[in-house]
């Protein structure tokens, strides 16, 4: 992708440099022979194709199978794809920061390559940790990406059966593809939340002193999962939006995790799924102290909590009102759970299925 076209304001981020710098700073991929690499790619493609029917049938959301295209990529391919998405989603905030910075001369002092390098470093760090991703904002139906070297690396680290792990990962990502392609309003709703968040960022918060204070707070607060710099720099109004985004993302990630286990129990076997799930959950806690610190700064600990809390929400709701009752969550934006309801599934059931809640109380 090329840097944003010239306007009356200078560009704040050199996206081409972000991609190249991210690719250079990303961790080296695992050592693998060309034959094994080709087999991994083939198995991921086959796993995605098999998962499409399995997940779509299990979810019963009435969507069509395989609407969104599938890409099996390396780390640089993931960086390039996400740079495009980041540029699109952050454009309102970048425009505002660029405008104010230009008047103070900061843009010229720092330069678009410096900020591009910061974004690239973030993308480079994340590129070795993402196994797969559904991008709902690309094209008409979104796109599904599987990052082959990362899948190979993690299956080796966990010492699990590659065939089992590859299919299991595909089940999770396919669940996201089913969510967005079966629920027509969902992508626009999520896009709207993110845009509202970026458009309301108080750009005066982006000062060296403020960021230094936030870094100290994030490092020192070990009592709760951190939402990272974005949450710490936000205003009360923005934190309300963040809570709304968190509720939606917790639902989507928890639902995908629940589906991958439920379908995996049938397609792979409950014993194999239990082994992979236990090892994978340990991995989500982070590795060394440096990795854990970076995860806190980026809000990845909060991301792990989204998986856990969302899974419990889906498990509880399906257990009480069944799959059909749970699927009411996708009826409209109003039926989505709030962040508070994610932590209290009974409250969501009482709001959406009051008759069921009353019956539970009478019993």
Automatic annotation (TrEMBL):
<keyword id="KW-0645">Protease</keyword>
<dbReference type="InterPro" id="IPR042271">
    <property type="entry name" value="Zinicin_2_N"/>
</dbReference>
<keyword id="KW-0378">Hydrolase</keyword>
<keyword id="KW-0482">Metalloprotease</keyword>
<dbReference type="Pfam" id="PF10103">
    <property type="entry name" value="Zincin_2"/>
</dbReference>
<protein>
    <submittedName>
        <fullName>Zinc-dependent metalloprotease</fullName>
    </submittedName>
</protein>
<dbReference type="GO" id="GO:0008237">
    <property type="term" value="F:metallopeptidase activity"/>
</dbReference>
<dbReference type="InterPro" id="IPR022454">
    <property type="entry name" value="CHP03883_F420-assoc"/>
</dbReference>
<dbReference type="InterPro" id="IPR018766">
    <property type="entry name" value="Zinicin_2"/>
</dbReference>
């Amino acid at each position: 992708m090329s840097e944003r076209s010239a306007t009356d304001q200078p560009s704040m981020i050199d996206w081409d440099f972000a991609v190249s710098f991210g690719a250079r700073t990303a961790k080296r991929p695992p050592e693998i022979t060309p034959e094994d690499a080709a087999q991994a790619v083939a198995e991921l493609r086959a796993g995605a194709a098999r998962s499409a029917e399995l997940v779509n049938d299990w979810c019963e959301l009435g969507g069509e199978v395989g609407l969104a295209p599938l890409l099996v990529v390396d780390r640089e391919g993931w960086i390039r794809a996400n740079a495009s998405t980041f540029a699109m989603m952050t454009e309102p905030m970048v425009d505002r920061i660029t405008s104010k910075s230009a008047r103070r001369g900061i843009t010229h002092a720092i330069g678009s390559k410096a900020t591009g390098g910061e974004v690239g470093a973030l993308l480079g760090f994340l590129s070795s940790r993402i196994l797969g991703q559904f991008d709902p904002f690309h094209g008409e139906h979104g796109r599904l990406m599987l990052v082959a070297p990362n899948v190979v690396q993690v299956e080796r680290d966990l010492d699990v059966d590659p065939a089992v792990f590859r299919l299991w990962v595909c089940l999770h990502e396919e669940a996201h593809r089913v969510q967005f392609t079966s629920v027509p309003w969902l992508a626009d709703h999520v896009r709207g939340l993110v845009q509202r968040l970026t458009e309301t960022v108080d750009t005066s918060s982006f000062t060296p002193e403020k960021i230094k204070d936030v870094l100290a707070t994030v490092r020192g607060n070990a009592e709760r999962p951190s939402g990272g710099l974005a949450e710490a720099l936000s205003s009360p109004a923005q934190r309300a939006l963040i809570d709304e985004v968190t509720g939606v993302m917790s639902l989507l990630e928890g639902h995908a995790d629940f589906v991958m286990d439920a379908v995996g129990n049938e397609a792979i076997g409950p014993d194999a799924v239990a082994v992979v799930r236990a090892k994978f959950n340990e991995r989500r806690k982070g590795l060394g102290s440096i990795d854990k610190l970076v995860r806190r700064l980026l809000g990845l600990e909060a991301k792990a909590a989204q998986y856990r809390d969302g899974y419990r929400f889906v498990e509880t709701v399906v257990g009480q009102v069944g799959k059909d009752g749970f699927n009411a969550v996708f009826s409209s934006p109003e039926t989505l759970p709030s962040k508070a309801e994610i932590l209290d599934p009974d409250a969501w059931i009482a709001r959406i299925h009051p008759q069921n809640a009353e019956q539970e109380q009478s019993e």
